[in-house]
Amino acid sequence: QVTLRESGPALVKPTQTLTLTCTFSGFSLNTSGMCVSWIRQPPGKALEWLARIDWDDDKYYSTSLMTRLTISKDTSKNQVVLTMTNMDPVDTGTYYCARIRAAAGASSDSWGQGTLVTVSS
Amino acid sequence: DIQMTQSPSSLSASVGDRVTITCRASQSVTSYSNWYQQKPGKAPKLLIYAASSLQSGVPSRFSGSGSGTDFTLTISSLQPEDFATYYCQQSYSPPYTFGQGTKLEIK
Fold first, then answer.
1. In this complex, do A106 and B32 lie within 8 Å of one another by their Cβ atoms?
2. Alpha helices in chain B (DSSP H)
3. CA B47 to chain centre
4. Alpha carbon distance B95, B83 (integer Å)
5. Least packed by Cβ within 10 Å: which of A57, B45, B64, B67?
6. Which of B9, B34, B3, B24 is nearest to B102 (CA)?
7. Cα separation, A5 vs B85, whole angstroms
């Protein structure tokens, strides 16, 4: 059974750096074709894709946010970490991590429950 | 970036209705199009991947079609549990952009 769980601070101040951790089980990021992505959703708004990291450590980022994002993995701990610098109130929302399988059209077939991050002073 | 445009943005329908939601990509994504269902307060759930492949465990009343730039999600006979928001996504080229969503409401 594949599971993912996001963890991190619920509240950050403007200009601070957000660090989120995705802890997963049921698959390995050492396996060819496996990837993990981060997606966010402001309250009442649409999904926004943020970043992806692959089994071979290739990384991809949102064009508009790439200067603020860093994604990394620790395969020994089954974790993927996303950092976002210079947080702003518009970054408030629920942040999800999800597994991507290249064999399934690079779709996100398993998601964490999400973690709500509020940016406020 | 590839833009994904969904229509309609909202839709009212009744139990038993056949419903179609469309998604248009700003350039060809071949068959790399996916559909997700999201209920309030919950994570999205994958319904259809690679344009027309039904994700395991998803009822057969859901189907997808299309290729290139135009894609369709069809629900053949709406059930009460299908009232939710639906998103398309392209996974052809990162960043893997989503459509703006279609909210399906009870008439």
1. yes
2. none
3. 8
4. 28
5. A57
6. B9
7. 22
Cα end-to-end span (Å), chain B: 36
> Hey, is A86 helix, strand or coil?
coil
CA distance B16 to chain A (A): 27
Give the mutation candidate from B32, B45, B49 for the A interface (greatest A CB count, under 10 A). B49
Q: CB B94 to CB A52 under 8 A?
A: yes
Model pLDDT for residues B68-97, shown as the tens digit of each residue: 999 999 999 999 999 999 999 999 999 999
Cα–Cα dist A115/A5, whole Å: 9
Q: Chain A window 5-34: which residues touch B at a Cβ cutoff of 8 Å?
A: none
Q: pLDDT tens across A30-80, in order?
A: 999 999 999 999 999 999 999 999 999 999 999 999 999 999 999 999 999
Q: Considering only CA atoms, which of A58, A63, A65 is closest in space to residue A100?
A: A58
Cβ separation of B95 and A63 shorter than 8 Å? yes
CB contacts of A96 in chain B (<8 Å) are 43-44
Q: Do A111 and B96 touch (CB under 8 A)?
A: no
**In the 8-state DSSP scheme, what is residue B40?**
T
pLDDT of residue A64: 97
